[in-house]
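Methods — Computational structure assignment.
A single polypeptide chain was analysed. Its primary sequence is given first, followed by the predicted tertiary structure written as structure tokens.
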Amino acid sequence: MKLVKMSVGGIVGYVCMGVRFDDNQLDVLRAIAKYGSRRPIKVIQIQSHTGLSDRTIRTHLKALRACKAIAVSQAMRGYPYHIEILEAGRALLDERVS
């Protein structure tokens, strides 16, 4: 699993880059949603794979969208999803998440 170390609201955490999320990895997403992120993150792709339910993923994406730290792609088809995360420029992030 490829993880990228990030500072999340002063708390050091890890963000999964281009990997499938299991329950432990979703804990990372919950932390980002709760504390926000000093470095912009952009969710650029959601692809089907076996794993979490559609409802679970949608719930977490709503939490992430609400914290304004992550821009979520509109390409949500099928379920569950694979979320690929890449860093994005602050201007692009603000534009997509406003």
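Note: The radius of gyration is 12 Å.
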